Amino acid sequence: MLVSSLLGLDQRVVLLSAPAGYGKTIALSQWLAAYPRPASWLYLEADDDDPVVLLTYLALALAAVAPVDDELLELLRLPAPPLNERVLPSLATALATAPPFLLVLEDCELMTGDHSWAMVEFLAEHLPPGGQLALSSRTDPPLPLPRWRAAGELAEIRAERLAFDRGEIASLLAEHEIDADEETLDALTAVTGGWPVAVYLSMLAARDARPEELPGRLRANGRGIEEYFVAEVLDREPADVQEFLLRSAILDPLEPGPVQAVTGRVDAPGLLAGLARANLFVSADEEPYEIYRYQELFADLLRTELQRRHPGEKARLHAVAAAWFQEHGDLDQTIRHFVAGGRIDDAADLAASSWPRLWRRGQQETARRWLRAFTDEQVLDRPGLTLAAGWVYSAGADVTLGWRWALAACNVRVGDEPSPDGASSLRSSQLLLRATIAPDGVTRMRADAEEAARLESRPGTSWHVDAQMILGVARWLTGARRRAEHPLELAATQGVVFNQSSELSALGSLALVAIDEGDWARAAEHVARARARLAELGFGTMRRSLPMLFAEALLGAHGGERVGELTADIGLVIDEMVPHPWLVLTGQVLLGEACVTCGDLTVARRWSAQADQTLTTYPDAGILRGRAQRLSQALERAAHGESLTPAERRVLVLLPTHLSEGRIAEELSVSPNTVKTHLRGVYRKLGAANRAEAVERARELGLLKDV
Fold this sequence. Notes:
- This protein is mainly α and 707 residues long.
- Among the domains are: 2-162, Rossmann fold; 166-234, no CATH class; 426-631, Tetratricopeptide repeat domain (Serine Threonine Protein Phosphatase 5, Tetratricopeptide repeat, Alpha Horseshoe); 646-700, Winged helix-like DNA-binding domain superfamily/Winged helix DNA-binding domain (Arc Repressor Mutant, subunit A).
- It has 39 helices and 7 strands.
- The strands form 2 sheets. The protein has a 5-stranded parallel sheet with strand order 2-3-4-1-5, sandwiched between helices. It has a two-stranded antiparallel ribbon with strand order 6-7.
- Helix 21 packs across helix 23 and helix 32 runs antiparallel to helix 33 (581-598).
């Protein structure tokens, strides 16, 4: 009945939302078996809660039902993959040309990151006509469900729909040759509430009990229906199978290697296959992967029973699992089992030493998920992990979290011992982080950067390049423009091999230094070099490419382009620079300057106002404070029309008269071409696109108050 209903759905998104044990997987399996079009299934893991990882698996799943370009996977393997610039457009192209298909995402409750869910929303919004996305979850996902529901694009299957009614319970019992009378069916329906897993467990428990005894035995069991069923089902298995089930339950999913390690059973693959065939709450993923899973509720109950029967054994098993996964390079599972087994120091050391590797692969969300495995106290008790939290969270979009951990990391007490993240010492890592964030202003930023560069003096490392880059920026911000060039050049040169993101930042910063020196040609060369490297590396827009974007805006304005719209796009990136006030202020000032130069005065005023606001909480801003003041003064002069030449003002006065350009030329005794030239100057300086806007803007500024 339910399968027929699913086959009749034409909504783009189908949500199966219900607690564990309601048969979501079974319903989806039956739907896919009968689905007349191509279909693909993706089991989600907690490890997939990272946009890069998730998109990789989505691309692989889609490849089974749609033409996915190999370039898409290649892009996802790049450091800092260009998700918005290239990956998502490529995915949209693949979806646009795909035939109708069904894609199932199961265990969606394991994903909690906003960025990951944004990818799922993008997928749903770009499905081809007739395409469907099915989401199976214990909880409602953070998607625009109300909007989809109102548009008739969402179908919802919830617990009440998945629950067994009396007739379905009777049919299930009959299929297993259990003859229950009407009274027993009524009682069993009432006591289970139609919960499919409870009904199924009761069926197994009926193997040595008369059906009519079941409801009474269930009601009489004081420990609860779940524990009762574990006892009824588990105790009926041979002792060795019981131990296998209990010990392997700490794993999810169940793969032959780790299962063999924690159970000591070399026949684990065959035993898992046998349990799956016996329907003992074990299901197999698609062949040939040999991956199995316990039904979620059953696994929870097995773990509880393991703790009851063998106190302390769970920690040992998690240690065995962690060792196996670490040996095989699965850091996600290693950290998970270290934490679950209480080996917090081992988990912390691994997370603190491995996060830079993830960062270079663009898997920031994975690094953040690792950190979320620890309590705040566990992070703060370990300086290496505190520094990791500072680096990782300060580059995120969460304002509160970013500032909190940035400040904690900048102020934690550290020594000169080696840093797990690869820096020469914990102190060096902290100094470099503090210089990068610069919460106390640019004077302290430069002092921290000078010392970090001294400590990270060994060339040929990512940390050395980073230290040189931020040192050059700090010197520029404190007015030592000439002294900034050498470390920036060094970072740009060595970064090609050791730290490409710092290379990009150094090139953009060199362009800004050249602009300050009036060398526009050299600035253009630096920007061109940065642009070429950005395209070569395939990076998306990120914090380290912002100096290049600032320089591009200044160059464009210098060349007569209107850059107001461009600066708005850059502003979207600036908005994510939560704990980097100096970088935010740099953008606000420089983009405001660019807009003044090209006459986009309305946009320039917005940037100037934002800069003034930032300066109220960030007073030690070096050269930026004076530039912000000069930007404000330039806008004030423009407001009084001082930026208009006398000839332009004579033309402006005649604009409200509605005289044609030819008549204005006659009135002023100049040529029509001269009038056109003056008009272009008026429009540019007033930020107007046409004559009417120029008149309106001039009246707002008081330039035409007597007209």
